């Protein structure tokens, strides 16, 4: 039997969620008074631990508001401007963590993502904030002034009260790592609107019919430009047993809507027309597939040649300029209709979330409920692949934490 709730402990700020945003927010909020961070997981920052292949792509040097998807594309500007990648790098340097730029402004730890978690926990501890893990949030109530929460841990139910409540419970991706969608339900409890959520930065799947054609390519990686209903992304593309993955596909997945086509350009540097013409004049007695194999892995070349040239087995030498151009066009505009996505099981982030119209872009505070804040992934701000989502977690956490410290509402 659950014991009855006892009298309330008092905190200035309670932060729900000990992920990237929640942990980072605590020391900024601490000057205002006692801070408690609560999480139902056994360990804090689990997504940080597995991020970036265990090395955490903790920010991106080229962060701009254009690298984020939100119904209000101006919302993220203020927070991102007031806490930049260089502010976070300063902390990382201060903690003695060695890092490197991998590509496209993406910064990774040289050693381990665990160093970032340790840095966040050290800062939290130094600020005097308290962290309670394996603690469930049973109820949240608005009081005339502040909030009352019913928490439970090891079968013990107790109440805490606070002036400020920061919701940093993240999105729905990777439920087995503790993602619950709790923050969305809490937003609804307070009458806030949600922008429809769906998995993003997620591999795409093909129908069983189409998969028969592509599954022999599973494991083949090449460079491509991919575009859904948004910007095009030129990065790696990977054929999988279910469909497509790789950075260019993950990026495009955030803009892709079910039923829509995806356009893949297998000649991102526009080299093929000249290359094929050269090969025709120097060694024209080769098939299109063998010519393409100089440009991409052989298995991919065979499949793409058969589709682009409609099983035309003639040699290059027998093709007219017009026919060569048509083949190159087909390779640079490969339109496919994915059947779906791999869903929240493998998605890196959740698109949509708490509608930003309800929030102050300066403080992340709910306009209609003074003292209530939403930060990180639970908000309708979703970054591209490449360290942008952590940068949003840090920047929004800083915005809320400093607003609390400065008594801004
Ligand atoms: P986050 O998910 O980090 O934290 C939420 C916390 O709330 C969790 O600790 C959870 O246990 C807790 N919680 C949830 N429901 C609760 C409840 N009901 N009660 C109590 N606690 C609850 N981004 C990036 O920029 N660079 C990268 O390299 C990667 N790599 C990456 C890899 C993988 C595999 C994934 C899944 C994601 C990434 N990301 C990423 C995305 C990044 O991890 C993500 O955007 C941030 O962690 C979001 O930070 P939040 O603090 O908002 O949520």
Tell me what the structure shows.
The protein has 409 residues and is α+β, with helices and mostly antiparallel strands. Helix content is 31%, strand content 25%. Helix 1 (20-29) links the parallel strand 1 (9-16) and strand 2 (35-38). Mean pLDDT is 94; it is low at 1-5. Residues 17-22, 39-41, 46-47, 50-52, 56-57, 137, 168-170, 173-174, 178-180, 182, 348-349, 376-377, 387-390, 393 line the site of dihydroflavine-adenine dinucleotide.
Note the topology.
Blueprint: E1 9-16, H1 20-29, E2 35-38, H2 46-50, E3 57-60, E4 68-69, H3 77-82, H4 85-94, E5 99-101, E6 106-109, H5 114-127, E7 130-132, E8 136-142, E9 147-153, E10 156-167, H6 182-189, E11 194-200, E12 204-205, H7 208-214, E13 221-227, E14 232-239, E15 243-245, H8 247-253, E16 262-265, H9 272-283, H10 288-292, H11 298-308, H12 321-332, E17 334-336, E18 340-341, E19 349-354, E20 372-374, E21 382-383, H13 388-405
Parallel strand pairs: 1-2, 1-10, 2-7, 10-20
Antiparallel strand pairs: 3-6, 4-21, 5-6, 8-9, 9-10, 11-19, 12-15, 12-18, 13-14, 13-16, 14-15, 16-17
Helix pairs in contact: 1-5, 1-13, 9-12, 11-12
The protein binds dihydroflavine-adenine dinucleotide.
Shape: elongated
Number of strands: 21
Specify Rg, calculated over alpha carbons: 25 Å
Residue share in helix: 25-40%
Spans with pLDDT under 50 lasting ≥5 residues?
Answer: 1-5
How do you describe this structure in short?
The chain has 13 helices and 21 strands. It has helices at 20-29, 46-50, 77-82, 85-94, 114-127, 182-189, 208-214, 247-253, 272-283, 288-292, 298-308, 321-332, 388-405, and strands at residues 9-16, 35-38, 57-60, 68-69, 99-101, 106-109, 130-132, 136-142, 147-153, 156-167, 194-200, 204-205, 221-227, 232-239, 243-245, 262-265, 334-336, 340-341, 349-354, 372-374, 382-383. Dihydroflavine-adenine dinucleotide binds at residues 17-22, 39-41, 46-47, 50-52, 56-57, 137, 168-170, 173-174, 178-180, 182, 348-349, 376-377, 387-390, 393.
């Amino acid at each position: 039997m659950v014991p009855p709730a006892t009298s309330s402990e008092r905190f200035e700020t309670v932060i729900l969620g000990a992920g990237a945003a929640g942990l980072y927010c605590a020391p900024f909020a601490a000057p205002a008074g006692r801070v408690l961070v609560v999480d139902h997981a056994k360990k804090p920052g689990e997504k940080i631990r597995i991020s970036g292949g265990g090395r955490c792509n903790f920010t991106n040097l080229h962060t701009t508001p254009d690298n984020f998807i939100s119904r209000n594309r101006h919302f993220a500007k203020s927070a991102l401007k007031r806490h930049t990648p260089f502010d976070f790098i300063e902390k990382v340097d201060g903690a003695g963590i060695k890092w490197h730029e991998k590509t496209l402004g993406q910064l990774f730890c040289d050693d381990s993502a665990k160093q970032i978690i340790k840095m966040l926990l050290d800062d939290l501890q130094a600020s005097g904030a308290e962290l309670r893990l394996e603690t469930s949030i049973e109820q949240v109530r608005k009081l005339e002034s502040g909030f009352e929460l019913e928490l439970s841990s090891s079968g013990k139910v107790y109440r805490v009260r606070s002036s400020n409540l920061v919701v940093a419970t993240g999105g729905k991706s990777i439920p087995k790592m503790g993602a619950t969608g709790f923050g969305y339900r809490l937003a609804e409890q307070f009458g806030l609107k949600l922008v429809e959520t769906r998995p993003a930065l997620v591999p795409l799947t093909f129908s069983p019919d189409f998969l028969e054609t592509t599954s022999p390519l599973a494991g083949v990686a090449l460079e491509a430009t991919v575009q859904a209903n948004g910007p095009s992304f030129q990065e790696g593309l990977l054929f999988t047993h279910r469909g497509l993955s790789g950075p260019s596909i993950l990026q495009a997945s955030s803009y892709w809507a079910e039923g829509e086509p995806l356009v893949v350009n297998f000649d991102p540097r526009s080299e093929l027309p000249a290359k094929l013409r050269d090969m025709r004049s120097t060694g024209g007695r080769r098939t299109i597939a063998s010519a393409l194999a100089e440009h991409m892995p052989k298995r991919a070349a065979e499949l793409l040649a058969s589709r682009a040239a409609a099983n035309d087995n003639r040699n290059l030498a027998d093709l007219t300029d017009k026919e060569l151009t048509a083949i190159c066009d087909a390779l640079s505009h490969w339109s496919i209709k994915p059947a779906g996505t791999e869903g929240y099981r493998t998605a890196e982030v959740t698109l949509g979330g708490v509608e930003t119209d309800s929030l102050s872009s300066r403080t992340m505070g709910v306009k209609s409920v003074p003292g209530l804040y939403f930060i990180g992934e639970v908000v309708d701000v979703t970054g591209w692949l490449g360290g942008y989502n952590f940068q949003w977690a840090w920047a929004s956490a800083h915005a809320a934490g400093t607003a609390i410290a400065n008594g801004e509402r």
